[in-house]
Automatic annotation (TrEMBL):
The keyword Ribonucleoprotein is assigned to this record: no
Name by which UniProt lists this protein: Uncharacterized protein
This protein's UniProt keywords: Membrane, Transmembrane, Transmembrane helix
Annotated source species: Actinoplanes oblitus
Annotated TM spans: 65-89, 109-127, 134-156, 162-179, 191-210, 242-260, 272-292, 312-333
Any coiled-coil regions, as ranges: none
Domain of life: Bacteria
Length: 343
């Protein structure tokens, strides 16, 4: 067995064992034929094999529709990412709005978190200008920047990054989901995230009315961040946490609209899109989940830090929407298919 053949077989780790046994030789021979005189697999071949393996695993679990719903969910996530990044840059990261001696300035911004927001905005621009490989590279850079800020927050904390981890985790989820944006979208689709981002810029510049509703009367505005900054745990009715709630509601509305539109046309793709979006929606609603039992009780028992408690409550909620709910959905799909075959 040649080294190239061995390399391709190793790349098939993502496929279920049964598939590798039944069709592994056939698939490897196909890639060897396309490889020509190369001595190692191309990066694109590795990506294709891993993607194909994940598709097979989803199909085996009754979740094959996830792949169909992923592109639309990614575009919605990218639009949300652009809007959130504009908001935090405009209202918190500009130093003169909330000066603090504990932050590490980066240019005109308060903390290195601004680099992550700028990376997210570049990924929005890249998707509008050159969707495909260029946009995906920009998206990967955005994910790495958000991850870097999140890890810095975890390792060093407030002296460098004032943004709490429970605000960074939703950004990571959105940026990671955005990597699945379609390679060859139509013009309306590729311009949608940019349009939402530009609208956020205009809204921030004009300070359009955006009250924080804590009951029958507004308790403030999302633009009133000069005395709050990012705000550390655990108030839901603060500008920087409430804006995630508003974004979550907008993402939910977009997901429902896509699901209804596809349902009218007799397609289930939109329902899968909505299912995928439930995880970032849950993470954006982390602050509200922190007050819900038994999530709050479990978080309090597990960790001591308020910030970590909120993060844990959000992660437990995401476990339900991102793992348990899809598994249950997959089982329902598999049972319905078996009944159709029997009938």
């Amino acid at each position: 067995m040649s080294d190239l053949s061995t390399a391709y077989r190793r790349l098939m780790f993502a496929y279920p064992g049964r598939y590798r046994r039944e069709r592994g030789d056939e698939l490897v021979d196909l890639y060897l034929e396309m490889a020509g005189n190369r001595s190692r697999p191309r990066p694109s071949d590795a990506v294709d094999l891993i993607r194909g393996g994940l598709r097979e695993r989803l199909r085996a679990a009754g979740l094959s529709g996830v792949a169909d719903g992923l592109p639309a969910a990614a575009v919605i996530a990218l639009a949300a990412l652009g809007a959130i990044s504009v908001y935090y840059l405009a209202t918190v990261e500009i130093q003169h709005l909330w000066p603090s001696s504990v932050d590490l300035p980066v240019g005109p911004f308060r903390t290195p978190a601004a680099l992550a927001y700028l990376g997210c905005l570049v990924s929005v621009l890249a998707f509008a200008a050159r969707p495909g490989r260029f946009a995906r590279i920009a998206g990967v850079v955005a994910v790495l920047l958000v991850t870097g800020v999140l890890l810095t927050r975890a390792a060093i904390g407030m002296p460098v990054v004032a943004m709490p981890a429970y605000l960074l985790i939703p950004l990571f989820a959105l940026s990671a989901l955005a990597l699945a944006a379609p390679r060859s979208p139509s013009w309306p689709v590729r311009l949608l995230p940019l349009g939402v981002t530009v609208a956020a810029v205009l809204a921030a510049g004009a300070h359009l009315p955006a009250p924080i509703l804590g009951g029958s009367e507004p308790v403030g505005s999302i633009w009133e961040t000069s005395t709050w900054g990012y705000h550390l745990c655990c108030g839901y009715l603060t500008p920087t946490t409430y804006v995630l709630h508003l974004t979550a509601m907008a993402v939910l509305a977009a997901g429902v609209a896509v699901a209804l539109g596809d349902a009218i046309n007799g397609r289930a793709r939109g329902a899968w899109t909505l299912l995928i979006l439930l995880t970032p929606i849950t993470l954006m609603e982390t602050m509200r989940l922190y007050g819900v039992e038994p999530l709050a009780r479990a978080a309090v028992r597990a960790v001591g830090s308020n910030e970590l408690r909120v993060c844990l409550a959000g992660m437990l909620g995401a476990l339900v929407t991102g793992v348990l709910l899809p598994l249950v959905t997959g089982q329902v799909v598999r049972l319905s298919r078996r009944r159709r075959v029997v009938d």
